[in-house]
């Protein structure tokens, strides 16, 4: 192999390796996002998805979920009470899949998802007036813009803002 | 009786007993259960009234919401949750075959929503009246 050819081969190898690594990291990050949203349980989906999107458990800490389940009869202004067996099933699922405060992902005591650092960071580019559009109503109505929210898919490429 | 017919008898007994617990699986069957409960609660029970049910459904009972705040004034229409905006499938059985097919589910929602709208549990009389109102809608 001539020196020029060898140099070209080396350059090409470095570039290809670099792109491959970048591609791997991106797909890993996206896959992690999907994995995090893929935890599901039929009782949780049925009960917690009946009035709003069933918010993925990793969005709040285990402590926050316990706090919410303890006062379901006063759930952000409405009665969402369930029987004990159901509460137990849902509680176990939520705590097992809750966000880990240790990873800096969630503040332990915040119970309102839209007030978490993560939510505010992710939606910083959304104008306050957007939340008040009649098709949206409030920031709690994920499905207004995240058209696949009901399946736990909040990926940005699927966002469609209503008028 | 040999072992296998004994097992068959037990399975049949359990199935019958189990079905007995869940036999209220239609609007009419649930209405009958509410009537039985209303009769137990008051000797002067005189049946259900769709008119009373409609009044209860549409009224705000001194609070912020009525049943129609979420279910709309027309129970055959798709409703919308007053806080979250989530669509709510029609409530009238004629418009939604899944409604009132489980007394456990019906009672779960009556418990929550009567508490939110009226501030207390609905009585069997009230539940029966509302169900009578909802059942009068035709497909």
Describe this entry's structure for a reader.
- The complex is a heterodimer of chains A (163) and B (139).
- Mean pLDDT of chain A is 87; it is low at 31-36.
- Chain A has 6 helices and no strands.
- Chain A starts with a helix and ends in a 32-residue tail after the last helix.
- Chain A has helices at residues 3-37, 42-48, 62-70, 84-96, 117-122, 128-131.
- Chain A is mostly helical.
- In chain A, helix 3 runs antiparallel to helix 4 (84-96).
- The radius of gyration of chain A is 21 Å and the shape is elongated.
- Chain B is mostly helical and 139 residues long.
- Chain B contains 6 helices and 2 strands.
- Chain B has helices spanning 3-21, 27-41, 50-58, 67-71, 103-117, 124-135; strands at residues 79-80, 87-88.
- Chain B has a two-stranded antiparallel sheet with strand order 1-2.
- Chain B is globular, with a radius of gyration of 18 Å.
- The A-B interface holds A 51-53, 73, 76-83, 136-138, 140-141, 143-144 and B 81, 83-86, 108, 111-113, 115-116.
Considering the chains and any ligands shown, give keywords for the structure.
heterodimer; A: 163 residues; mainly alpha; 0% strand; elongated; B: 139 residues; two-stranded antiparallel sheet; 2 strands; globular
Individual helix count of chain B? 6
Overall radius of gyration of chain B: 18 Å
Instruction: Give the termini distance of chain B in whole angstroms.
Output: 51 Å
**Element-by-element helix/strand order of chain A:** HHHHHH
Strand tally of chain A is: 0
Stretches of chain B where pLDDT is under 50 for at least 5 consecutive residues are none
């Amino acid at each position: 192999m001539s020196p020029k050819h060898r140099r070209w081969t080396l350059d090409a190898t470095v570039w290809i390796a670099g792109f491959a690594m970048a591609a791997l990291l991106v797909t890993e990050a996206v896959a992690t996002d999907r994995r995090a949203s893929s935890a599901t349980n039929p009782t949780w989906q049925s009960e917690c998805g009946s009035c709003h999107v069933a918010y993925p458990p990793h969005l709040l800490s285990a402590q926050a979920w316990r706090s919410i389940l303890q006062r379901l009869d006063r759930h952000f202004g409405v009665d969402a009470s369930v029987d004990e067996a159901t509460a137990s099933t849902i509680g176990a699922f939520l705590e097992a899949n809750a966000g880990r405060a240790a990873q800096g992902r969630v503040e332990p005591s915040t119970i309102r998802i839209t007030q978490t650092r993560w939510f505010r960071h992710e939606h910083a580019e959304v104008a306050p007036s957007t939340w008040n559009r009649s098709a949206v109503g409030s920031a709690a109505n994920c499905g207004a813009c995240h058209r696949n929210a009901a399946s736990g898919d909040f990926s940005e490429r699927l966002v469609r803002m209503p008028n | 009786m040999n072992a296998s017919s004994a097992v068959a008898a037990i399975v049949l007994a359990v199935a019958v007993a189990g079905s007995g617990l869940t036999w209220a699986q239609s609007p009419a069957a649930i209405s009958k259960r509410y009537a039985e409960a209303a009769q137990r609660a008051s000797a002067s029970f005189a049946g259900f009234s769709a008119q009373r049910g409609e009044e209860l459904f549409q009224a705000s009972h001194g609070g912020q919401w009525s049943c129609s705040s979420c279910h709309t004034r027309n129970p055959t229409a798709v409703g919308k949750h007053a806080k979250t905006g989530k669509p709510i499938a029609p409530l009238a059985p004629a418009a939604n075959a899944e409604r009132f097919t489980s007394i456990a589910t019906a009672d779960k929602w009556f418990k929550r929503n009567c508490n939110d709208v009226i501030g207390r549990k609905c009585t069997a009389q009230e539940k029966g009246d509302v169900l009578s109102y909802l059942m009068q809608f035709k497909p």
